[in-house]
Specification:
Number of helices: 8
Radius of gyration: 28 Å
Helix content: 40-55%
Structural class: alpha+beta
Largest sheet: 3 strands, antiparallel
Number of strands: 5
Length: about 240
Amino acid sequence: MLSADSVIALILSAYDGREPNLRTNREPPERFRHLNERIDAGCTLDAEVDLEDGVLVVRIWAGTQTQEEAIELRVPPSELLYHLDRQAYISVLDVLQGAMPAEEEERTELVEEEAGESGEFVSEEEPAVPSEPVAEPVRQQLLDDYQGRFREKVHLLYEFVVHRLLGGRGDQKEQVHRFANTLLDEMEDLAVVDWSRRESKRAAVRVTLKRLIQIAAIDGLDEEAIEPLLDWLRREIENGNGHG
């Protein structure tokens, strides 16, 4: 949705035959495809990771500019995910939700008080203020049933996990069914068009697989199953339509 100011500015600019002000314009970047193509064709990129600060450093120079004149952007993971792939941002938050915060050590101070006229000082320990219990992170529950867009794939996924990844073991069939239900339910948001060809989308699916494997705690199903499961999803849920 465009704001009223953007609509008015766009109409006036079109009337005058001018481009909208790029500094204040709120339109999506797709609106300026002709400018995007000009920049993409005329720029050179260089990138590295600053491990000390934990940021991606991107340098861009165009035309006759030298590397010393390059524009440098320092992008932390949070901004990169939030602006480029909101689902991946959410998936990373889900993974980090299970990390327990470090417990704060209780400290007591010795307070010197003057005791009477003798000038003696007595050190006594202040009673520790009881700290509030840290709330346990909410653990996602696996789905007992799934009737969504990919419901016809539930049995196929179940068979793949049992026979290809667990060696035919059927002693955990109920938990495997819940795992399959939950994974296919989450794929409804993850399986956008061409998801299997876009590295950022595949990365988001890997994060989801790792999280669900940890939650399901199925004996014999560990992180080594992530790539086989990803391959299965790419075959069976290609392009987000569930028809392979």
